[in-house]
Amino acid sequence: MSTTKTTDDETGVLRKVAFASGLGNFIEWFDYGSYSYFAIVLSQIFFPAADRSLQLVQIYAVFALSFVLRPVGALVWGHLGDRLGRRWALSASILVMTMATFGIGLVPPYASIGIAAPILLLIMRAIQGFSASGEYAGASTFLAEYAPAHQRGIYVSLVPASTAGGLLAGAVSAFTLSAVCSPEGLLSWGWRLPFLIALPLGLVAWYIRIHLEDSPAYQEMQERLKHEASDDKPAHPILTLFKRYKKKLVIAFGVSCLNAVGFYIVLTYLPTYLEEEVNMSASTSTGITSVTLVGYVVLIFAMGHLSDKFGRKRMLVTACFAFMVLAIPAFMLLGTGSVAVILAVEIVMCVALTINDGTLASFLTETFPTEVRYSGFALSFNLANALLGGTAPMICTGLIKLTGSSMAPAWYLVTISAIALVAMAFCVDRSGEDLASSGRTD
Q1: Domain holding 317: CATH number?
Q2: Nearest of 269, 212, 281, 306 to residue 396 by alpha carbon
Q3: Which residues contact 432 (CB under 8 A, 6 or more apart)?
Q4: Cα(395)–Cα(403) distance, rounded to whole angstroms?
Q5: What does the alpha-carbon distance between residue 56 and residue 68 come to, in Å, rounded to a whole number?
Q6: Whether the Cβ atoms of residue 31 and residue 101 lie closer than 8 Å to each other
Q7: Three-class HEC string of the chain
Q8: 1 belongs to a structural domain
Q9: Percent of the chain whose predicted confidence (pLDDT) is above 90
Q10: How far is CA 166 from the centre of its chain?
């Protein structure tokens, strides 16, 4: 009887951890989605109307700042998560991120306070980027260290699923508010609602997190350290990461490159590509991408389950080959302009992407030992996203202009897939290992 009770209690805690982890990540990407889909509206509100193209460049420049600060935030939150605990870091990061997102919804327009408006927006985005850099890695680490070893993949796949869910919710909210509000209403108050709603959602996630115990693997590490001589205790987590686990860090960065580029090309850049290169209407291209996002959420859990069954390395290698084989013909078919063909292509690309994304978070948690797991995951993942993810739309656009070929993004995706494949050749598959001891040796 006591065993059943213990099992029920553990299942209840795991569900709370999963909910809190997914909700925090959902809020982050709901904001990113809302910001992207409201870009034209925000550019009119926060920048002078002298040049429409300059307005958009400025609003996207503010968006890009959050990626620049991600590696910095990764160092800070990684250190705090490994030094003070996963629960503490996640509770603090969601609170900071929620307040910054809520703050965006309160910033007055340029017409009211002039240059102070874009400056305040810039500050809020900077705070967001700093705090959000610990969210994906922290949520994945926290959930992985709670999940049963044989089901780690499917549980941790909740984190990337909540990412796509947030983007989809941002698209739906933008579409709904644009349809319900008058143009004047959308400019005055409608755009603010997605940012303001972050406060109650964030406080719910924060409340759940502060009432959870830290992960079993982290508690076990703390108990072990109490019985070790002080000279043997790990130093600063970041210093330990660079001193002992440089190879793991480089491998993790290389593997994360495909996630960074693939995610932003397939789910955020393709609508722009279809409008600019295929002359498809904005509503049609956005609608196709929204359907793809739904497919992503559904497929990601299946891929997490398959990674538990077949191993992370096999799944990630499969994703590399899939992109290398499919990218060129996929972009050729996009050029047909057929809605049915383009939808089919995006779904196929989505399948390849979910093979990677449904596996990567579990792989990264298993790559690093407990003492530097948060730091190693956060730094490798956020560095890849800062250098290659946030810049993917810009690089693809630049390559098309440089080469004169609309196929340039496909070749870029193939190149990144090859880099990730090389990184995978040097990794050790630790699928299903006990995270209390996983990855302690190179």
Answers
A1: 1.20.1250.20
A2: 269
A3: 149, 150, 152, 308
A4: 12
A5: 19
A6: yes
A7: CHHHHHHHHHHHHHHHHHHHHHHHHHHHHHHHHHHHHCHHHHHHHHCCCCCHHHHHHHHHHHHHHHHHCHHHHHHHHHHHHHHCCHHHHHHHHHHHHHHHHHHHCCCCCHHHHCCHHHHHHHHHHHHHHHHHCCHHHHHHHHHHHHCCHHHHHHHHCHHHHHHHHHHHHHHHHHHHHHHHCCHHHHHHCHHHHHHHCHHHHHHHHHHHHHCCCCCHHHHHHHHHHHCCCHHHCCCCHHHHHHHHCHHHHHHHHHHHHHHHHHHHHHHHHHHHHHHHHCCCCHHHHHHHHHHHHHHHHHHHHHHHHHHHHHCHHHHHHHHHHHHHHHHHHHHHHHCCCCHHHHHHHHHHHHHHHHHHHHHHHHHHHHHCCHHHHHHHHHHHHHHHHHHHHCCHHHHHHHHHHHHCCCCHHHHHHHHHHHHHHHHHHCCCCCCCCCCCCCCCCC
A8: no
A9: 35
A10: 10
Q: What is the pTM of this model?
A: 0.86
In a domain, 204, yes or no: yes
3-state SS record for 381-425 = HHHHHHHHHCCHHHHHHHHHHHHCCCCHHHHHHHHHHHHHHHHHH
Give the C-alpha separation, 152 to 65, whole Å: 33
Contacts with 274 (C-beta within 8 Å, 6 or more apart), sequence order: 280, 284, 285, 288, 334, 342
Q: How far apart are the first and last CA of the chain?
A: 43
Q: How far is CA 155 from CA 14, 28, 261, in A?
A: 9, 19, 24
In angstroms, rounded to a whole number, what is the distance separating the alpha carbons of residues 367 and 434? 12
Closest CA to 374 of 193, 180, 234, 278: 234
Look at the chain and report how many structural domains it folds into. 1
In angstroms, the CA 307 to CA 280 distance is 36
Q: Are 390 and 67 in contact (CB under 8 A)?
A: yes
Residue 439 lies in a domain: no
Whether the Cβ atoms of residue 345 and residue 329 lie closer than 8 Å to each other: no
Amino acid at the residue 413:
L
Tens digits of residue pLDDT in 14-50: 888 888 888 888 887 888 777 777 777 777 888 776 6
Which structural domain, as residue segments, surrounds residue 405? 9-212+236-425
Rounded CA separation 295/300 (Å): 8
Residues 167-221 have pLDDT tens digits of 888 878 877 887 888 888 888 888 899 899 989 988 988 888 888 888 888 888 8
- 380 belongs to a structural domain: yes
Tokens of 176: 């709904």
